[in-house]
């Protein structure tokens, strides 16, 4: 097990598009374990492989209160979205300290492989639906702040670059 370094916005590597996993093997299972450990340690409710600079379609999510409901998504696809939307205040381990409202589909159906390579489908609503859509955006190279106004995005970039400079000096 290992903690993986998390890329921070506006790192350009966060905009790479992830490729599908070709084989669900021990390399992928190790990645999943390390990503889960990194997510729980952070702590966060979701992490996409893109955020740890691995550009393959792998996501871990756990929206439970007790951190006992790990969901592993490999090559996930949203196969249905409700027209009804919900607005949720989102944050991201790659954009520390920034929270803002994003509007997304209220309910979705997801098709995914698990860490054994088996196909599953599940329906999601509420926080789980938010989280799946947020993490699948990461796999497409999209960070949630890109839903905000250009003015807000620039303020966030300035703030995070300043934090980075201060961290380097400290
Ligand atoms: Ni995120």
UniProtKB/TrEMBL annotation:
Top-level lineage group: Bacteria
InterPro entries per the UniProt record, alphabetical: Peptide_deformylase, Peptide_deformylase_sf
Binding site for Fe cation: 92, 134, 138
GO terms, molecular function: metal ion binding; peptide deformylase activity
Coiled-coil region(s): none
Catalyzed reactions: N-terminal N-formyl-L-methionyl-[peptide] + H2O = N-terminal L-methionyl-[peptide] + formate
Residues in the signal sequence: none
Leading EC class: hydrolase
Active site: 135
Names of required cofactors: Fe(2+)
NCBIfam families, A to Z: pept_deformyl, PRK00150.1-3
Protein name: Peptide deformylase
Organism: Pollutimonas nitritireducens
């Amino acid at each position: 097990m290992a903690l993986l370094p998390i890329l921070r916005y506006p790192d350009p590597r966060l905009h790479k598009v992830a490729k599908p996993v070709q084989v669900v093997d021990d390399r992928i299972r190790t990645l999943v374990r390390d990503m889960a450990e990194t997510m729980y340690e952070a702590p966060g409710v979701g992490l996409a492989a893109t955020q740890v600079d691995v550009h393959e379609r792998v996501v871990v999510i756990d929206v439970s209160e007790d951190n006992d409901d790990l969901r592993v998504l490999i090559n996930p696809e949203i196969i249905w979205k409700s027209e009804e939307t919900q607005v949720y205040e989102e944050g991201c381990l790659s954009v520390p300290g920034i929270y803002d409202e994003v509007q997304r589909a209220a309910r979705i159906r997801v098709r995914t492989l698990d860490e054994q390579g088996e196909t599953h489908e599940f329906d999601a609503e509420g926080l789980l639906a938010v989280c799946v859509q947020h993490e699948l955006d990461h796999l497409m190279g999209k960070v949630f702040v890109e839903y905000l106004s250009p003015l807000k995005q620039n303020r966030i970039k300035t703030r995070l670059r300043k934090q980075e400079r201060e961290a380097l000096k400290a």
